[in-house]
Amino acid sequence: MDLKPVDALKAAGVPEDKARAFMDSLHRDLDRRYGMLPGHVVTRGEFAEEIGAVKVSIAQLEAKAMTAIAEVKTALAEVRTLMAETKADLTRWLLGSMIAMTAVILTAIRLTSH
């Protein structure tokens, strides 16, 4: 305990036992309000372990993210392939329909012109 506040209280006319009791009470109150509880203190080793665990978690999340990205890229490639196949099918049907319509029109013209 710091003696200067006790001495100051004694100089102000407070008996020494009451001055010491007051300072003890003040210290206990300050310790209770602002003191570190044992559960709040962390050693460097514990802190390093927690940081290591966080790094492992981040690495696992990154691996999962990379897997998800690869799956999305694969799905996009499949969609692009299906779109290209659909485009080719539509082009074949369109050209086939145009040829068939042309043949029908030419046949109609020949039949009506005689």
List descriptors.
single chain; mainly alpha
Would you give an account of this structure?
The chain has 114 residues and is mainly alpha-helical. It has a domain at 1-41. The protein is 86% helix and 0% strand. It has helices at 3-11, 16-34, 44-113. The chain is rod-shaped. The model has no long low-confidence stretch (mean pLDDT 90).
N-to-C series of helices and strands? HHH
| Helix proportion | over 70%
Fraction of residues in β-strands: under 5%
What's the number of extended β-strand segments?
0
**Main β-sheet: number of strands, strand sense, barrel status?**
none
Summarize the structure.
By secondary structure, this protein is mostly helical. 86% of the residues lie in helices and 0% in strands. It is built from 3 helices and no strands.
Task: List the SSEs and their pairings.
Elements: H1 3-11, H2 16-34, H3 44-113
Helix pairs in contact: 1-2
